[in-house]
Amino acid sequence: MTTFWFIVIAFLWTGYFVLEGFDFGVGALLPVLSRGPAERRQVLGTIGPVWDGNEVWLISAVGAMFAAFPAWYSGLMSEFYLAMVLIVAGLIVRGVGLEWRGKVRSGKEVALCDAGIVTGSVLVAFLWGAIFGNLLFGTGLATMLGGALSLSLSVLHGAVFVALKTDGAVRARARLAALLASVGTLPVAVAGLSALPSGVDSAPLWGVAGAAMAALAAGVALVWRRREGWAFAATASAIALATASLFGALYPAPLPGLTVAEMASAPYTLTVLTWIGLVALPGVIAYQSWTYWVFRKRLTRV
Q1: How far apart are the C-alpha atoms of 145 and 126, rounded to whole Å?
Q2: Is the confidence at residue 201, as pLDDT, over 90?
Q3: What is the DSSP letter of 257?
């Protein structure tokens, strides 16, 4: 059961990074992709119906860690206390900006909301990568590399999403932004790949990481060919595979000196959690799938 719940938590974090990844990218690129109030509304409209639902994956991942592996949860929160506080602050500032932007009237208040969206998106995207980079490698350089990789992937993913969901000048700028972002993302991804542990036992891990690199390169090529739908699928696959390789490298000791078996809750607790998950998780997936289907069309400038 401990391995099963480690896989479940890895799946929840993967869903969060894939879905919130483009949210963060859209927020970070807001001043780059838009020219004027109408285009800013168009850009933010791409994530308006889904951004808060995407954060359900974070709540689910953290909640599952707390219930299934309380020692992992407490160790992570205490070791990265300052970073976690900044992440919470960034999420609050970003959420307030997204919610209040359509309710305020003065230009200064709108600009303040936009600044909160951009700052919160950049900060949170960077810090999640920094935290997991430090967990995996434990060095200052790797921490910065993890943050840079997370942020650059989010920017690329977000640019592709905007290109997929808009038309006109915003779509053209988003395509260009994706191509420019790839110039920084690909070298950082290669550096992250080279930092993975080597050895015979690491062969499957390298295979997954290599598949992530291939998906990332395919996404860039597809953007060049104006195939935004397939490009988005490729960048989403790249993030999912990169997250899988991350958790594969963390297993079986997500924290130094502690294995998942040592950090796990009692078997009865894990059994109860399994039944709860079997009921709740399909509902979350079904609801979000329906939401994306309803809001699947491109947005025009309004």
Answers
A1: 10
A2: no
A3: T
Work out the percent of the chain whose per-residue pLDDT is above 70: 98
Confidence band (pLDDT; 50, 70, 90) for 149?
A: very high
Query: How deeply is 131 buried, as exposed, middle or buried, from its count of CB atoms within 10 A (0-12, 13-18, 19+)?
Result: buried
Check residue 202 and report its DSSP letter.
G
Burial class of residue 12, CB neighbours in 10 A (0-12, 13-18, 19+): buried
CA R_g for the chain: 19
Q: Reduce the DSSP state of residue 2 to 3 states and report it.
A: helix
Ramachandran region, residue 168 (left: φ > 0; alpha: ψ -120 to 50; beta: rest): left
For the chain, give percent helix, strand, coil, nearest 5.
85, 0, 15
Which pLDDT value is given to residue 51? 94
CB atoms within 10 A of CB 83: 20
Q: What is the distance between the alpha carbons of residues 124 and 137, in angstroms, rounded to a whole number?
A: 20
Helix (H, G, I), strand (E, B) or coil at 107: helix
Phi and psi at residue 40, to the nearest 5°: -65, -40
**What's the pTM value of the predicted model, to 2 decimals?**
0.95
Nearest to residue 220, comparing CAs of 263, 270, 185, 264? 185
Angle subtended at Cα 64 by Cα 61 and Cα 68, rounded to the nearest 5 degrees: 145
Closest of 61, 82, 85 to residue 73, by C-alpha: 61
